[in-house]
Each structure stands twice: as structure tokens, then as C-alpha cells.
Amino acid sequence: DIQLTQSPSTLSASVGDRVTITCRASQSISGWLAWYQQKPGKAPKLLMYEASTLQSGVPARFSGGGSGTEFTLTISSLQPDDFATYYCQKYNGYATFGQGTKVEIK
Amino acid sequence: EVLLLGSGGGLGQPGGSLRLSCEVSGFSFSKYGMTWVRQAPGKGLEWVSTISGPTTSTYYADSVRGRFTISRDNSKNTLYLQMNNLRAEDTAVYYCAKDSVSSGLFYFDSWGQGILVTVSS
């Protein structure tokens, strides 16, 4: 089974910071990767798919990159609404999620 | 507007059964795969099961295969998860989610609000 490992597990940052989360796959998944944002007590929200395609309605400060086994989610200028937990997910087969990265206020 | 409204959770006994439902609106339900994802308290997301749209092929995580059954009623725009032989480790919030493609096993572009299932004696 393909495993996804996110780093860091927790990230402390301030409003306006540029932050990057990494998701590494145990074997190549081409570009079959999605990113979600989840706030406490809420359902996840799709941010990105095919590694770098922004879901409709998601702010352009979010960007994604990578292919094969290493992927990134970058927030160019962190906003108050962005403090949340972020998950990567591999698809085109049984779904697997990363363990999550919590972005908290510094 | 796409809406997914889950129901049917609550307290289940170890070895017992529960059935979750997810009624959807705002899209052509029969054309899309549908999925259940769960989240144990304080933990991450875990894929549980997927059912395709037109062919109703089904797929299960190893942790639930043989105990859970996913199904859909396209005439009622409703997705189901029949959960049998419940275990304590099935305690979680269960989310229904819309797949982005008909076959399922892709990414999930809309999610329900979550259904709490607690397994305890």
C-alpha cells in the first residue's frame, strides 16, 4: 500500500507568512494528489487536485506543486482564515490520506 | 448548490449494527461515485468505502471489509453505509463525500457535515 507522509506535523506561523507543507509518497503516484483544508468540527474542503490545479473558489494564495513522490502546498501570504489542518490525499485507486499538518498561530 | 445531509449515527454496541444515510441534492447523483471517509477522535482522515455511479461497483478498506456494506438508491438520491459487527475502533465521525468522477476512487469535491458514531457498551 502507498503511504503518504506530511511534514511538518505542526507549523507555527504569523499572518502574512509564506508557508509550505510537504507530502511524500512511498512510491510514485504521478500527479494524482489532492489537498484539503479542515477546520475544527467541520468537514474537509477540497483546495487542490492533480497536484497543482486550484479548486474553483479557492483563493489564489494557495498553490500546489510536485509529481511522483514529492508534493508541496504553499500559502503565499497566510490569512487568519487559513489557520486549520491540511491533508494530502492520493487517488486514482484506493484513497490514502496523509496524517495532517496543523497550521497554528505563532 | 451541492448538499449532502448525513443521518443515522449514534451509540452502537460492540458486535451490533448501525446504518448511516446521506441524502444529496444539487447534482446528478446517479452519475457520480460516492464515498465514506471517517475520522476517529483527534485523528486524521481514513477512507472507508466507495461505490461507483453507473455500475455500482464497491470498494472497501481492509479495516471494514466483510463488516460494512456501502449501497445507494439513485431514485432517492441517497447513499448508505450498513455497519455490522461494530468494534470500538469504529468510533469516529463519518463523512459522506461526492467523488469527482463516475467511477469513484478519485478526489472528493463535496462533503457532508459528518455523522458521529460511538461504539461502546
Bulk shape of chain B: globular
Assign the structural class of chain A, choosing from mainly alpha, mainly beta, alpha/beta, alpha+beta, or little secondary structure: mainly beta
Radius of gyration of chain B: 13 Å
- Helical percent range of chain B? under 10%
Number of helices of chain A: 0
Which strand-content bin applies to the residues of chain A? over 45%
Biggest interface goes to: A-B, 21 and 21 residues
Count the E strands of chain B.
11
SSE string of chain A, helix = H, strand = E?
A: EEEEEEEEEEE
Strand content of chain B: over 45%
Q: Which range best describes the helical content of chain A: under 10%, 10-25%, 25-40%, 40-55%, 55-70% or over 70%?
A: under 10%
Poorly predicted ranges of chain B: none
> What quaternary form is this?
heterodimer
Tell the overall outline of chain A. Answer: globular
Average pLDDT score of chain B: 96
Kindly state the number of beta strands of chain A: 11
How far is it from the N-terminal to the C-terminal residue of chain B, by CA?
40 Å
Secondary structure layout plus pairing:
The complex is a heterodimer of chains A (106) and B (121).
Chain A: E1 4-7, E2 10-13, E3 19-25, E4 33-38, E5 45-49, E6 53-54, E7 62-67, E8 70-75, E9 85-90, E10 96-97, E11 101-105
Parallel strand pairs in A: 2-11
Antiparallel strand pairs in A: 1-3, 3-8, 4-5, 4-9, 5-6, 7-8, 9-10, 9-11
Chain B: E1 3-7, E2 10-12, E3 18-25, E4 34-39, E5 45-51, E6 58-60, E7 68-73, E8 78-83, E9 92-99, E10 108-111, E11 115-119
Parallel strand pairs in B: 2-11
Antiparallel strand pairs in B: 1-3, 3-8, 4-5, 4-9, 5-6, 7-8, 9-10, 9-11
